[in-house]
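User: Design a sequence. Structure:
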């Protein structure tokens, strides 16, 4: 892992999204809110979507999105609120249409909406499994598909999806959350491969920050000392610059990537590729696999690690 070299930030900082229109789901609080605020400061007009549900998906606060819109407008930006449910097909389509009606175009979609429920694998109900996949994965599919049709007409557009180390690396007692978040990475890659030749980009961010979701995942309070502080810096705003960059024309060469962000650290994730090969001209049997594969690959097996085992340095 290498640290980045200082760049000419002043040359690209102001107005990096000037003239763009962004749709940000789950933008009423936390990381989504910070992304919406920064994109507005960078010149984008923003549709702020949030149903206002709790981190586990219960309840509704129709003022959640409107409050962020008020902040943007008070600072001189332009924004509209949408309190619809991104996991409902008609409401996902309505978000895209509302952005078009309000601002005349759509250039950026940030799929940030998500929920988390922690439970032992044998205790996860089918209802809970469906709920997490509906909010975390279906919403990203539905909003992206509706927006992609607009992007195809424009021959331009950028998707930024939120995945998680819970899916990319692994986590216990979160099987439904992990699987939905790993699927996000596959969705993003498929979009990038299929639509990249049409000027449409799709990338993932794997964020770590002290959010309500982090509290739900770890069971620790935001101000608790120790492990949470070491693995998740306080500032959710640290994620927003990466999202704005990936959405901007400054990142036209970046497509189909998964980038992590934690505090002042950003890191590129690898993606699954074959790394070892065994071949026999006369084929394989169970006995031969037992005799050859395990000793040959013993030192290459992927260890059973969690986020804290892999991201084991203290974020700056």
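Assistant: Done.
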């Amino acid at each position: 892992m290498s640290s980045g070299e200082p760049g000419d930030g002043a040359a690209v900082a102001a107005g990096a999204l000037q003239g763009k229109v962004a749709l940000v789901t789950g933008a009423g609080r936390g990381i989504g809110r910070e992304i919406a605020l920064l994109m507005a400061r960078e010149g984008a007009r923003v549709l702020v979507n949030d149903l206002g549900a709790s981190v586990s998906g219960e309840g509704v606060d129709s003022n959640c999105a409107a409050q962020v819109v008020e902040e943007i407008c008070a600072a001189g930006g332009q924004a509209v609120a949408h309190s619809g449910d991104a996991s409902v097909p008609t409401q996902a389509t309505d978000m895209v249409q509302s952005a078009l009606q309000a601002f005349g175009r759509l250039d950026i979609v940030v799929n940030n909406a998500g929920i988390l429920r922690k439970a032992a694998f044998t205790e996860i109900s089918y209802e809970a499994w469906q709920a997490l996949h509906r909010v975390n994965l279906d919403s990203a599919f539905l909003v992206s598909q509706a927006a992609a049709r607009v992007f195809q007409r424009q021959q331009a557009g950028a998707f930024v999806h939120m995945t998680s180390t819970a899916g990319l690396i692994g986590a216990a007692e979160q099987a439904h959350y992990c699987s939905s978040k790993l699927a996000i990475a596959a969705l993003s890659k498929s979009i990038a491969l299929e639509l990249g030749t049409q000027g449409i980009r799709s990338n993932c961010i794997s964020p770590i920050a002290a959010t309500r979701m982090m509290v739900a995942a770890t069971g620790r309070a935001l101000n608790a000392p120790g492990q949470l502080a070491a693995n998740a810096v306080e500032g959710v705003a640290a994620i927003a610059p990466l999202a704005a960059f990936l959405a901007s024309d400054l990142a036209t060469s970046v497509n189909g990537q998964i980038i992590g962000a934690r505090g002042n650290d950003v890191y590129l994730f690898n993606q699954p590729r074959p790394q070892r090969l065994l071949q026999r001209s006369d084929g394989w049997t169970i006995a031969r696999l037992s005799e050859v594969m395990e000793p040959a690959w013993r030192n290459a097996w992927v260890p059973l690690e969690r986020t804290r085992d892999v991201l084991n340095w203290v974020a700056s």
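DSSP finds twelve helices and eight strands in the chain. The first strand starts at residue 21 and ends at 24.
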